[in-house]
Design brief:
CATH superfamily of one domain: HAD superfamily/HAD-like
Distance between the termini: 26 Å
Structural class: alpha+beta
Largest sheet: 7 strands, mixed
Number of strands: 22
Shape: elongated
Strand content: 15-25%
Radius of gyration: 33 Å
Length: 639
């Protein structure tokens, strides 16, 4: 019954891009409040209660100490209750104040003090358990360039604000700069890092007429582009907007809890008044029925639920954090516990982000080893990620007798070796050099010797060692359906699906396509977990029921995600689901136990059978039992 703000009243604030809504329950604190003050007050209140057990404290002093404890710890509750009554609202604070006042009126000073102190402890626990306000997703703005290099009519370059760029302007993008707006290349060629948009680690080759999206990072050469969109309509800006809008869609389930809590306390107060007044008017026994109504108020005080719920979440989140799983709020424990579908990004999530050599094709009469050996010689001096993967695959490379190394921007490499002139690169490089590659399937790299193609090399991402086992564990936990959403090709996605035992995939997706695909998946699922790591994953991380970010991913993904696997161990995903399911089982059992005990005591109290100590047990006793049960979550059990 607790939401992320954690009081169990259901009215506390939601944080993503919304104003704080306070309920007057005493749990919604001002953010600027000195956090040490509530702790000090709670400790003093507890010490005052403890002092009553000292042998030299007489009965009068004991009452004074307990009343001081109740007033000191209950003061914020009293203030909130007063504010609520001024607005003609009856909420949990009002109920607690009535319960404390009733306990003092009936001479149950220990009960009054305990209710106040325990309520304050619950507040402190929940303050630690929940992330009171999710940080603004500032990291996403890192893909938006604030400046642009405008080429004037005179051919000079003038730096301007990116907001001033107009459609049709010619811009110069220097090496390693972020493309400020969407555009088309009008001069130059090379490669760009598109991982911020597609999540794919392989560089993308560009040349004249190639389309460019803002947020891409230029490679080693200067290119000129013609702007096809202004800044706030370009790809990077749309990603920012999608993240903000997607985040606002969360928290629908919490509104149902808010409605329940809104009517709970008024119903209890009204019931107590009716029990005190109606039978008294009939029987004339005012003292007896007022006493029974006070038992109802004390027994129905929701402290057991209010405290055990946040403690369960706090214990679970604290234990998870020690094991590399940061859960940003209690609502995500509930969401991931009931999820039945998991969606993975490919690169950096199921794969490590490191490139490896996949299938190698060879021409007739050419050995596979020769293909990779000559490719390694040609790529030996290149710092390109693909080149490094090829050299690593070959092992020790003999560069004796090689000369005239050349690297073609966005194309590939060439070198003279004892075997002859070696050319290594993409399809464009082969076509430019009139080399026929028609006998080979489409590949990332082709290898040519003395003007003839001798082989082709596919480049794959290295699959995480725990990926397959994680998917299988998730199925056992009830997360039965699994998919991949990726900006990579269908062929690459199909390979990863097969290796990781994943059900299905959708490929060649841009960020907006991923978001659309995720919404379609959500329509057919009880709950969807999305696991990703790139800036391009931020919108889908925010839109999923639970967004999980790999720790080695971008800051933007971490900000947009609800759960972060800090050590980038994918196996922790199954542990997180298992821990969350345990948490919800314990929480539900606590709530059921507390409600059943309270209903029994209330019924017996109204019948005149239950004494005040039974009401105290229904409140404090059930709370202690529920807290002890929730404490089992302090240790994560790996699945």
């Amino acid at each position: 019954m607790s939401n992320e703000s954690g009081c169990g009243c259901g009215h506390c604030h939601e944080h993503e891009h919304r104003e704080i809504e306070t309920c007057g329950c005493g749990h919604c604190h001002e953010k600027e409040e000195n956090k040490a003050i509530p702790i000090i007050i709670t400790v003093i209140g507890a010490l005052l209660i403890a002092a009553t057990f000292l042998p030299f404290v007489n009965e009068f002093a004991e009452k004074i100490l307990l009343i001081l404890s109740a007033l000191l710890c209950g003061f914020p509750i009293f203030i909130n209750a007063f504010r609520s009554l001024k607005k003609l609202k009856i909420n949990e604070s009002v109920l607690l104040v009535i319960a404390v006042a009733a306990a003092i009126f009936l001479g149950e000073f220990f009960e009054a003090a305990m209710v106040s102190v325990l309520f304050r402890i619950g507040e402190l626990m929940e303050d630690f358990a929940s992330d009171r306000s999710r940080k603004s997703i500032e990291a996403i703005f890192s893909i938006v360039s604030d400046e642009a290099n405008l080429i004037t009519d005179g051919g000079k370059i003038r730096k301007i604000d990116a907001d001033e760029v107009k459609i049709g302007d010619i811009l110069a993008v220097m090496p390693h700069e972020i493309f400020p707006v969407d555009g088309v290349v009008v001069k130059g060629e090379g490669s760009v890092d598109a991982s911020a948009l597609t999540g794919e680690s392989l560089p993308v080759e560009i040349s004249e007429s190639s389309k460019i999206s803002s947020g891409m990072i230029n490679g080693n050469s200067t290119v000129h582009i013609r702007a096809t969109a202004v800044k706030n309509q370009s790809s990077a800006a749309r990603i920012v907007e999608m993240v903000e809008n997607a985040a606002q869609k969360k928290g629908e389930a919490q509104r149902t809890i808010s409605i329940f809590a809104k009517y709970y306390t008024p119903a209890v107060v009204i019931a107590a008044i009716l029990i005190a007044v109606v039978p008294s008017l009939i029987t004339g026994d005012w003292q007896s029925w007022i006493h029974r109504s006070l038992i109802l108020l004390v027994a129905s005080c929701p402290c057991a639920v209010v405290l055990s719920a946040p403690l369960a979440f706090f214990s679970s989140m604290g234990a998870a954090a020690k094991n590399g799983m940061i859960i940003k709020g209690s609502r995500y424990i509930e969401a991931i516990a009931k999820a039945d579908t998991v969606v993975f990004d490919k690169t950096g999530t199921l794969t490590t982000g490191e490139l490896t050599v996949g299938k190698i094709y060879r021409a007739d009469g050419v050995d596979v080893k020769k293909v990779i050996s000559l490719a390694a010689k040609c790529e030996y001096y290149s710092t390109h990620p693909i080149a490094k993967a090829i050299v690593a695959e070959n092992g020790e490379t003999d560069m004796t007798g090689t000369s005239d190394f050349s690297e073609i921007a966005g194309g590939g490499t060439s070198i003279s070796a004892p075997e002859g002139k070696i050319l290594c690169g993409g399809e464009r490089l082969m076509i430019r050099n009139d080399i026929d590659i028609s006998e080979f399937p489409k590949a990332h790299v082709y290898v040519a010797l003395n003007g003839a193609a001798i082989g082709a090399v596919e480049i794959d991402g290295e699959i995480r060692s725990t990926a397959t086992e994680t998917v299988r564990k998730l199925r056992k936990l009830g997360v039965e359906h699994s998919l991949i959403l990726t900006g990579d090709t269908a062929e690459q996605a199909r390979k990863v699906c097969a290796k990781c035992d994943i059900d299905d995939f959708r490929s060649n997706l841009l960020p907006e396509d991923k978001l659309t695909a995720l919404e379609e998946i959500k329509d057919c699922a009880k709950g969807v977990i999305y696991v990703g790591d790139g800036i391009n994953d931020a919108p889908v991380l925010a839109a999923a029921d639970v967004g999980v970010a790999m720790g080695l991913g971008t800051q933007a993904a971490g900000e947009a995600a609800d759960i972060i696997l800090t050590n980038s161990e994918l196996s922790r995903l199954a542990d997180t689901v298992y821990q969350s399911q345990r948490t919800m089982k314990i929480l539900k059992s606590n709530i059921a136990f507390a409600i059943i005990v309270k209903l029994i005591v209330i019924a017996l109290g109204i019948a005149g059978i239950a004494p005040m100590w039974a009401a105290i047990f229904a409140d404090v006793g059930t709370m202690i039992i529920c807290v002890a049960n929730a404490a089992r979550l302090l240790k994560v059990k790996k699945y």
